[in-house]
Each structure stands twice: as C-alpha cells, then as structure tokens.
Design a protein that fits this description.
alpha/beta, TIM Barrel, eight-stranded parallel β-barrel, globular, about 270 residues, two-stranded antiparallel ribbon
Length: about 270
C-alpha cells in the first residue's frame, strides 16, 4: 500500500506511524467536528499521517435496542464535511455489499469489520471501488490466514490494502493480541494495531461490551515497539456517554500526551533500525 495514495493525507514523509482515530460511531455533526478538529491539530503538530474514523452505522450490536446510527446518508454527509473542513481523509466500516459503493462516494478508506473479513463478496465489493481497503483481522483467525483476505483485494485489481489487528478471542470475554503475528502479517500488507478494540471485553451479561481503557498506552507502546505501521484508536470527549463502545475508548483529553509519548518511542525505534 502507498500511504501517499490516500487523498488528502499529510506528513507521509515524517517516518512516523499513521493514525486512524475518531469516535466509534457518528452521533451527530457537532461531536464529529469537535473530535476531528482536536485530533487534526495534534497530528499536524506531531507530523502524524492521519485518517478520521467514524462508523456511519453500527450493524454488529449486542442487543436490538443498541444504538445503530443517525441515518446512513446523514452520517456519511458528516464524514464528507469533516474531510472537506479539515482537509483529511476519512474511513468508515461497511457491512453489506451495497454499502461499498454507497460509502465510497463519501469516504477515502473502506473498512471491513473483523467478523466479516472472510465474506468474499463484501471484500471484493470494497476492493472494486478503488478505495483503500482496511481489513480487520477476525478475532477467530490466525495471522497467517489474513494472507487470503489480502489476496482477494489484490486479485480484484486493488493494491491499496492494509491489515488491522484487533486481538484474538481468549475464552468468552477477553481479547488478547499475539504480537508474534505483527511481522507475519507485514509480509502481506502494512499492519495497524487497533489499540482500543484489542482491550474490549465482549459478551458481558448486561449485553453492553466492557473494556480496559487504562491499558491503552501499554498496548499502543507495545504495538510501536513491535513495528506496526499504524495505530487505530477510538476516542471521545465523553466516553461514559458515548453511544457505542464507550467502555474501551480513550478520553479525548488524554490523546495529546499519548501521541507525544508514542512519537518519541517511534523515533527511538527508527534510530535502532
């Protein structure tokens, strides 16, 4: 994947990690713009290539009454406005074949959720839009098996593909990242570590996913030390009241110091190579 091929992405020559970050779901225009503005300022200051992340809808929910979105077109238009206002690319996840062309009209990167990464029709549909495709590694898949998902994208005529590791199921209610898989997957495509989802604790009896956000910096540092190309982090100015995945999100006011620390660590790693 050529990072500079993503429209509007900046700082691609900084030799820093790239960042996919934003809220789990688009809850409204004001919140999206507020989060985007904050992260853009930080990433410009630290020369971090940045892609704003926000789900235009949430299809994988624990309960039927869980928040799924504010309306597809409304949310996608907000993603476009973020891109146009702050001159940054955007990424959103898709769940059905018909979502691919619809979302591709508004965003720059299409993300395949971990539960759906083996769905050939969905992966191929995303690839054929010509957009960069971010493949989330299935919680049930080995690092080696992600080669086949990457091949589906490339065989569809699209070389713009990246893998994101978001942990592997450990028992019923925990996720564990096997860092041995990072160099393995880097043989197939650039690799991103999804820091916040790797700290999820799914399948809670309440029907609301839990998490361990206190370990976000620990996980992110480990990813940088292991040589990931990018980081994925969901963040919100009020995680406790976020409509989706608040239990494992990073509070927006903690992001600056975290990115400063990770940039320093990345610089040290670069010197060792």
């Amino acid at each position: 994947m050529d990072l500079s091929a993503i429209p509007q992405i900046k700082h691609t020559n900084s030799n820093n990690f790239f960042l996919l970050s934003g809220p789990c779901a688009i809850e409204g225009e004001d919140m999206a713009m507020r989060i985007a503005e904050h992260i853009v300022k930080l990433t410009d200051k630290l020369s971090i290539p940045y892609v704003f992340k926000g789900s235009f809808k949430k299809a994988n929910r624990s309960r039927v009454d869980s928040f799924t979105g504010i309306g597809d077109e409304k949310a996608l238009k907000i993603l476009r406005k973020v891109s146009e206002t702050f001159n940054v690319p955007t990424v959103t996840d898709i769940h059905e074949v018909s979502d691919a062309d619809k979302a591709a009209e508004y965003v720059d990167v299409l993300q395949i959720p971990a539960f759906l990464v083996r769905q050939t029709d969905l992966v191929v549909a995303a690839a054929k839009t010509g957009k960069t495709v971010n493949l989330k590694k299935g919680q049930f898949m080995s690092p080696e098996s992600m080669k086949h998902a990457v091949t589906k994208v490339k065989d569809s005529g699209n070389s713009q593909v990246v893998i994101t590791d978001r942990g592997t199921m450990f028992g019923y209610q925990d996720m564990v990242v096997d860092f041995r898989g990072i160099p393995t997957m880097k043989e197939f495509a650039p690799v991103v570590l999804d820091v916040t989802h790797s700290l999820q604790q799914p399948n809670q009896s309440s029907g609301v996913t839990g998490g361990r956000p206190a370990l976000i910096e620990t996980m992110a540092r480990a990813g940088i030390a292991t040589g990931v190309d990018g980081l994925f982090m969901e963040t919100h100015f009020d995680p406790a009241n976020a409509k989706s995945d608040g239990a494992n999100m990073l509070s927006l006011d903690c992001l600056e110091q975290l990115l400063v620390n990770l940039t320093i660590l990345r610089g040290t790693i670069n010197e060792l190579q």
